[in-house]
Structure formats: structure tokens, C-alpha cells
Amino acid sequence: MSKYEKLDNEVKALSDVIWDMASNVWDFAELSYEEFKSSAYESAVLEKFGFEIVERDIAGLATSWVATWGTGKPVIGYLVEFDALPGLGNNTVPFQEPTKNGNTNGHGCGHNLIGSSSIGAAIALKNHMEKENIPGTIKVYGCPAEEALNGKNYMAATGLFSDLDICLHNHPAMVNAAINMHSTASIDLIVEWHGVTAHAGVAPWEGRSALHAAEIFLMSANMMREQLEPTGRLHYQILDGGSAVNVVPDHAKVLVRYRGKSAENVRKHKNWLEDMAEGAALSTQTKAEVTNLGGIYDCLPNDVLATSVTDHMQRYFPIAWTEEEQQFAKSIQREMGKPEDGLATDVLPVQTGVEVGGSTDVGDISWQVPTMGVIFASWPKHIPPHQWGCTACNGMSIGQKAGLQAAHTLAAQGLELMTNPELIEKAKQDFEAKKNGFEYQSLNDFDQNPRGKLDDQALNHYECCLHTALEHFGIGHQHSDKCNH
Prior knowledge:
Layout: H1 3-13, H2 15-28, H3 36-48, E1 52-58, E2 61-71, E3 75-81, H4 111-132, E4 136-143, H5 152-157, E5 166-173, E6 177-178, E7 185-194, E8 198-199, H6 210-224, E9 233-240, E10 247-248, E11 251-260, H7 263-284, E12 287-296, H8 303-316, H9 323-335, H10 362-366, E13 371-377, H11 388-394, H12 397-419, H13 421-435, H14 456-472
Parallel strand pairs: 3-4, 3-5, 5-13
Antiparallel strand pairs: 1-2, 2-4, 6-13, 7-11, 7-12, 8-10, 9-11
């Protein structure tokens, strides 16, 4: 029996554990920064299987953690995500229907599968290494708020990942492939203006409209679009524009996100947007305030790791979908007006030079250590993420099968890295060549995430969730007397 066959048996033995995690987190469906039950449950699973939680509350992210097992080199990391999206709750049916538990949030990006696949792979690899006396260290990182694009970047800025030799991750999708794409860098800015309130009919000249400042800013930002490179993207959301039509508003608030091809490009446009905010304030005699919620890097590809991951994917993919599962997928495609081609049944060759408009906070890690992921089909072809149909698939057998196969791939890739130092060295050489001398500097302005801090009530709730999860798995843990679960 080969080493991979033995490892495969370890993953198969954990199949119920992997799906238990995925299905529970699918039910919890918690939003960014509020992943209390999901974070607690998955960290407790790792503790149950012999990992030690060595750190929590990293960079002000209360639901973050690091689990570790083993000693010495190499050090291989696995990334976990667990946040859901608002308004995407859906029952496990091929049409729009509310969830049975009434939760309107939903895992339309499949983060319930991300955590279960990475954790399942890490536990299987650990069990195999114990039996075969293979040296090395496994680290698993609980990463909040990926949907807010401000989790791993704050964690990375602390140097948390700097001791890794290689970092692995995964993500559900509509195809099967190594994640060797170049994503966009991004930054989120909260822009506010403070003016003077007044009666809009009796004495408007006594006021200074913060809303007018916001309007000037947004007009300026939209005019900037003509000068954006083709890879540039600009989105905004008006969060506050006043509360009454007959009152000159003394406060206005806008969230603006800029995406660009590189961190350098993002910094340049951040400065430009800040100038626009100040210009709008000068025009309206208001005061501008800009808060950088956090910036993320573009993802750095690694051809060496992509080739290796693709080779391992060929062993486990494509999945043998049942006719019922294919029909389920085709029904979703029909509902959404897409070609009824069902679920992907092939593994794409190694992608090089591919540019994508989306962003991920994995990018910050990829500029610190060689990083590679696997994307796997857990929803129908032609259906982008963040849709109700994705939520439905991620909570039933399609997601279950896809997540298990991803765990197989991640475990196998981890084992090869643990036993093949030449592969690690080649991956590091590719990493250095693509960096081309560039040294990572965070795009954040703060050491801690300004949105990650929880109040006492939320912190106590999270502590209760941790205790409940540990108790569920029969693990003793000291907890607060205030916790009533």
C-alpha cells in the first residue's frame, strides 16, 4: 500500500467528521466578525483530534485562532474560513426557498466547505504522520471576515505566517483547478463629512451640508473611472445621507472600495480618493474624515505548487456525480437562465497568466510565503458564487462530495511537502522570482481591525460558544461564570 493510499484511508475515516463540520457551519451561517459558533465548533474539532490552540484574538479579530501539531521542519499551514453572506439563505432545494431554520444568511461562497476540507486534511495528515513517524509541523489558521476582505491581511501584518514553508488553502467554485490566478489588490475606505445642521426651509444658509460633500466626492470618484487602468474597479455604498428631507444633514458617510492590479496601484488611488474627500469638504465648508478599514494584496501565483496540486487533483477528481445530483444542478441552471450543463467533470490544466477581477485576503499571505490553493466544483457550471443556488448545493450531497475530495487533495499535497524538500525549495525559488525583490508592507493603517473589536456582550457570547463546543466534544475547559448556555 502506497503512502497516499494510507493517507486516503485516513481521510475516508474522517468523512463523517468533515461533513459534520460542513453541515453545522452551513446551519450556523454567521456573518463576518460574528462567526462565534462556527469558529468555536471548528477549533474544538481540532482540539479533539490532538491539535493545540496556541493563539486566539489575533489583530483584534476575536474569532481568529491558530492550531498547531508536530515539531520541526517543514512547517505547512492550512487556511480556514467560516463567514457567510447576508440574504443568501436557501433550503437544499434547486429553487429559491427559505431555510428551515429561518436564517436569512447563507453560505453562497461555500465557506462551510473551506473549513471542513482544510481541517479534515490537517487531521488526516497528522494521523498519518504519527503512524509513519514523519517529522514536521502542521498549523491551521481560523480566519474571520473573508467576505469583508479584512481578516487575513490583519493577521498577516503581525507576521503570523512568516514561519511557514508553504501555505495551502481551498475554495468551492464551478470548476476544478489549482488556484494559480492573479487577483486584484483592494482597499476599503469609510469616508465621512461633518457639517452644520439647519432648517432646510427657514434658514438653509446657516447649515453646511455633509450630503453635498458626499455628492461631490462620488461625482469626482466616478469621473476618476476614465483614468482607471482596465484592471481597476471602483464600488461604493452610501451609508448615511441624512435622516429628514427638511433638515440640512450635518453627517454623511460612504463606504468606497477600490481594486487595482497591485498594492502599489492601490496606494496611489487611496491617496487620490483621500484628496477627493478633502476637496469635497473644502467645497462645502465641512470637515472630511477618512478611515482605512484595511487593504489586501493581489494573489501571487506559484507555478511549481500549481503543477503539484493539479497532479494530486487528478488522483481524486472528477467526482462521480449521480444522475440525481446532475439534475439538481441543471434545475438550478434552468432557474437562473443558464445553459443546463450540470456539474463540472474535468480538472483544468495548470492556469498561468490568468487575471481575475475578484479579490481575496489570501493575497497578503501569498506575498510572505509560497501559497497555493485548490478550487473544486461544488455548484453548477456558469453560476458565479454569492448566489442562492450555491448555498443550496453547499448544504447537500454535492457540497459533501466536493468537500471530501478537496480534503483528499489538500492532505496529499501536505504529505508530499512534508516528505519532498526539493519541491519546497523549487516552490520557494518560484516565489522569490515572482516577488522580484519586492518586500511586503501592509496596506492597513492600524495594527488591529477597526471592525473586529467586540463589545463585552458579544465576547461573552463567543466564550459561551467555545465552552459549548468543547463540552460537546467532551473536552474540559475553564469558562466564565457569566456563560449561561
